[in-house]
Task: inverse folding
């Protein structure tokens, strides 16, 4: 019989006994490291979304694929939930452990197995850091394109789980567009190879299905990534604006002109000041917004596009435009953007990092609405955008020690995500749904779509043991959420009985 976990109670099963599970692991996999004492478990109680914390029952630290297989088979037999974790940098609670579950940490799988510079591919284990791939292949004039802000620490397995992007995903795509093959293990320990080293492979596109599935379908053991040739020329323009809406309009005009920058990022004044104080990137602290536009390719093409972008930005109302004079200044410009999150952390006791995606044409409207919501909730919002593809990361500043502020921050975040859906966007671009956005899944998808999601989950994991309570809400939850949350005077899913 299949087990459907209720995400609100962590999927706790009464038959899961810590001592029995620990004894079984030690008997079957004696060589695998297992943490079980509170002081050893404490560092694993959350991922990058520290607002949600749960002490795991056990933490498994396997060294080999065989150990992972044996652990999964044991968990399946004993019906123990398993949550996979990489570097723990996720921001949606996707790696949040369970009180009655095993946290499977893949950090020891950190080898680059093989590099083929002629084919432009590399085989890597899931614990390899994102940036380490580019560092390893730089000698061949190659690099790995996806570059999340956490790339110095985040692991490729986690990137696959969340379909991570980064500042260069506008031109070069998300993780999905930069991987060819994924080796995975099912909850029964069965080995599957999804995709191939060829540009296409027969059958269903299971790589696309698996990428972004947040550890709910299987455990990644190896990834074959695409490598790109380093561009001949790379230039960055920084444009200053006295109005965030003008900056938002400039983004749409650049893309509308047929120019696809390698990166097109936007920051508002609050973020600019925080980043400049932290990194000294050379940002103008009096600007209401800046755009960073990176263009790469053949030198002649880049020079032509720079002239076009310069003209578009000036016509859109840019008050000042700077072209990075050398590679060192280009790196400084990007260092400010990539360190925006920790920079904002220096000006507020706490912040809540949101992740939603909107159509580019809606940028000015969404920025106006966020400003109004900020006033309504009495909380500052620092805006950072992957503006070129509409992926927004509003940072809601609050103090968790002030009564009610954390709840207000969560409510404001929910309103922002629902705004994304209202304008034709989605509730996540690269951080995933995890535990954080599970209610907003009810706002984006109807009951038939959610039923389909559950069917896919059941096909891979019929007992519902892999990362239960994340990503996909039950229809009951959506009905209850809808009864409390009326949008536009209408209840979501009116066909469902209210509980």
Result:
């Amino acid at each position: 019989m299949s087990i459907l976990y209720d995400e609100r109670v962590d999927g706790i099963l009464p038959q899961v006994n810590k001592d029995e599970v620990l004894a079984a692991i030690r008997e079957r996999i004696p060589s695998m490291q297992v943490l079980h004492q509170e002081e050893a478990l404490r560092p694993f109680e959350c991922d990058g979304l520290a607002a949600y914390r749960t002490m795991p029952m056990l933490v498994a630290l396997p060294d080999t694929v065989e150990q992972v297989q044996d652990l999964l088979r044991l968990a399946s037999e004993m019906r123990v939930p398993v949550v996979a974790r990489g570097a723990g940098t996720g921001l949606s609670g996707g790696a949040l452990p369970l009180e009655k579950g095993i946290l499977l940490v893949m950090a020891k799988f950190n080898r680059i197995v093989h590099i083929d510079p002629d084919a432009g591919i590399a085989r890597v284990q899931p614990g390899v850091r994102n940036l380490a791939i580019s560092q390893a292949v730089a000698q061949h004039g190659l690099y790995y394109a996806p570059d999340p802000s956490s790339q110095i620490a985040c692991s490729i397995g986690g990137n696959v789980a969340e379909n991570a992007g980064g500042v260069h995903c506008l031109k070069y795509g998300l993780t999905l567009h930069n991987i060819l093959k994924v080796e995975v293990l099912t909850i029964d320990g069965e080995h599957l190879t999804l995709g191939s080293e060829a540009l296409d492979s027969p059958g269903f596109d299971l790589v696309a299905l698996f990428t972004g599935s947040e550890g709910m379908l299987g455990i990644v053991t190896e990834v074959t990534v695409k490598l790109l040739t380093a561009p001949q020329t790379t230039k960055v323009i920084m444009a200053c604006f006295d109005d965030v809406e003008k900056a938002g309009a400039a983004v749409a005009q650049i893309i509308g002109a047929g120019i696809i920058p390698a990166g097109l990022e936007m920051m508002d004044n609050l973020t600019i000041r925080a980043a400049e104080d932290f990194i000294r990137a050379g940002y103008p602290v009096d600007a209401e917004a800046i755009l960073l536009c990176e263009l790469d390719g053949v030198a002649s093409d880049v020079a032509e596009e720079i002239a076009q972008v310069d003209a578009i930005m000036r016509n859109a109302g840019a008050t000042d435009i700077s072209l990075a004079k050398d590679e060192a200044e280009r790196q400084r410009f990007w260092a400010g953007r990539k360190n925006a999150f920790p920079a904002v952390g220096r000006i507020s006791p706490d912040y809540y990092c949101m992740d939603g995606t909107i159509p580019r044409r809606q940028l000015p409207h969404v920025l106006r609405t966020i400003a109004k919501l900020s006033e309504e909730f009495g909380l500052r919002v620092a805006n950072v955008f992957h503006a070129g593809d509409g992926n927004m990361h509003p940072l809601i500043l609050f103090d968790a020690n002030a009564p009610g502020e954390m709840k207000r921050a969560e409510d404001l975040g929910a309103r922002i995500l629902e705004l994304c859906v209202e304008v034709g966007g989605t509730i996540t671009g690269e951080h995933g749904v995890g535990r954080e956005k599970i209610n907003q899944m009810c706002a984006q998808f109807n009951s038939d779509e959610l039923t389909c999601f559950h069917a896919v989950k059941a096909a891979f994991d019929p007992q519902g043991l892999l990362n239960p309570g994340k990503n996909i809400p039950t229809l009951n939850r959506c009905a209850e959420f809808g009864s409390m949350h009326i949008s536009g005077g209408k209840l979501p899913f009116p066909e469902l009985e209210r509980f």
Notes: The first helix runs from residue 18 to 28. DSSP finds 17 helices and 21 strands in the chain.
